Each structure stands twice: as structure tokens, then as C-alpha cells.
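TASK: fixed-backbone design
INPUT:
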């Protein structure tokens, strides 16, 4: 997309191994980059959006990755990219898909992130990872409360802040959830681009190592380096 001055990258978050519905995409975002201005736009896609799927009729977009992985392991990212491209009528050149553990690990390796919480988030039924089938039923959930103000978050708390779906008040809406996820992406980007990260070869190597077990993408190494060169000062 560089020749058209528009590079579109689909960002997907899923539960991953040992997680109920591990291939359902819990988070779907489209990152659109404009090389000439070094500007970026981030659009959140509702995971319950219904889209047409070839030979399957209309399906929720968060199911497509799972359907594709069952049919052909490793094909989910491309399948979601194609379905969303058809709906939005824009090319989607790349995808990057991470599971929950990969997300947690990277945030922790960065030393956590700082997020300004606009409204106190209180969710009385946040699902506890690993207890999806536990009994009694009530033990599958926890009370999540994150106070308004500047919060230092490790990977586990950042994931909870991003995933919460049943918070009281306005924070329980899909729009609020999308805003929270975008704030986390912005904070993580700032931390990755900081000199303390870039001048730490071991940290960079550790982050790259997460790609082996928890992250998949169709971006080639030279393409990542090219993107870095274009947008490192953005």
C-alpha cells in the first residue's frame, strides 16, 4: 500500500490455547497508516458485526478466524482480513494476531504502561481466565474495579481493562470498550518507541521472541523494518 500512500493493518486479539473459544477474535482493529504525513488512524470493529462469509451466509465477524483455523490452521488472519476488506471496500494489506498471553507478556516485558482512566470501571462479572468451567458457577467471575485517574497497569490488568464487557454505566458499552482498547494500544506504542526500549537489545529480542508462541502475522521482517523506518518519528 505504500505506492497508494495508505497501508492498512488488521489487528486481532484472541484467547489462544487453553482458553474457551480460543480462536474467537475478542478484539478487532484496523490500523491505517499514511506514509506521506506519518499519520495513523485506528478504527475499532464491533466483534458482533455480521458479515457475509462465502458458503456460510451471514456470520459474526469474530467467528471467522475460528472457522478458518478449523478448516486450515494458520489461515484465520487472512480470512478475517478478506471478509472485512469486502465489507469496507478497502484493501487490507497485513494482519497481526496476538493471543491473551502474548499481550500480557509484552506489556510486562515493557515494564507496564500508564493509562489515564477517565471513569471508574466497575465490573461485577469479569470472567476469570482458566475458570470457564469451574463450579460453583459464581467462581467463574471476579469483581473488577479500576479507579478513575492515572493507573500503572501490568499486562494482566491492562488485559482486563481492555476486555471488560459488563461494567456499570457508560463503561459497559461497546464504544467505551473500543476507546479503552485504543488507549492501551497508544500507551504500548509510546513505550515501544521510547529510547529505553530501543536501546535495550535484550528487551527487543524478548518481544520478538513472543512471535514464536503467541503472535502471528503475514508481515515479513523486511516489511516490519520498512514500516519502522517510515514511522519511527511519528
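OUTPUT:
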Amino acid at each position: 500500500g505504500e505506492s497508494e500512500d495508505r497501508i492498512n493493518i488488521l489487528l486481532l486479539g484472541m484467547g489462544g490455547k487453553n482458553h474457551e473459544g480460543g480462536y474467537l477474535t475478542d478484539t478487532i482493529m484496523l490500523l491505517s497508516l499514511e506514509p506521506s504525513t506519518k499519520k495513523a488512524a485506528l478504527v475499532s470493529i464491533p466483534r458482533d458485526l455480521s458479515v457475509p462469509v462465502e458458503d456460510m451466509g451471514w456470520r459474526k465477524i469474530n467467528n471467522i478466524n475460528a472457522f478458518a483455523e478449523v478448516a486450515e490452521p494458520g489461515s484465520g488472519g487472512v480470512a478475517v482480513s478478506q471478509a472485512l476488506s469486502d465489507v469496507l471496500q478497502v484493501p487490507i494489506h497485513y494482519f497481526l494476531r496476538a493471543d491473551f498471553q502474548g499481550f500480557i507478556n509484552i506489556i510486562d516485558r515493557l515494564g507496564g504502561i500508564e493509562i489515564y482512566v477517565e471513569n471508574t470501571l466497575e465490573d461485577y462479572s469479569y470472567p476469570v481466565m482458566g475458570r470457564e468451567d469451574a463450579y460453583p458457577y459464581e467462581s467463574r467471575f471476579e469483581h473488577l474495579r479500576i479507579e478513575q485517574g492515572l493507573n500503572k497497569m501490568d499486562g494482566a490488568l491492562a488485559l482486563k481493562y481492555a476486555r471488560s464487557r459488563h461494567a456499570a454505566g457508560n463503561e459497559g458499552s461497546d464504544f467505551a470498550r473500543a476507546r479503552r482498547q485504543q488507549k492501551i494500544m497508544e500507551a504500548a506504542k509510546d513505550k515501544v518507541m521510547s529510547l529505553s526500549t530501543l536501546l535495550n537489545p535484550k528487551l527487543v529480542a524478548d518481544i520478538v521472541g513472543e512471535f514464536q508462541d503467541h503472535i502471528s502475522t503475514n508481515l515479513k521482517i523486511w516489511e516490519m523494518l520498512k514500516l519502522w523506518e517510515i514511522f519511527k518519528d511519528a
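COMMENT: Residues 107 and 155 are 5 Å apart (CA to CA).
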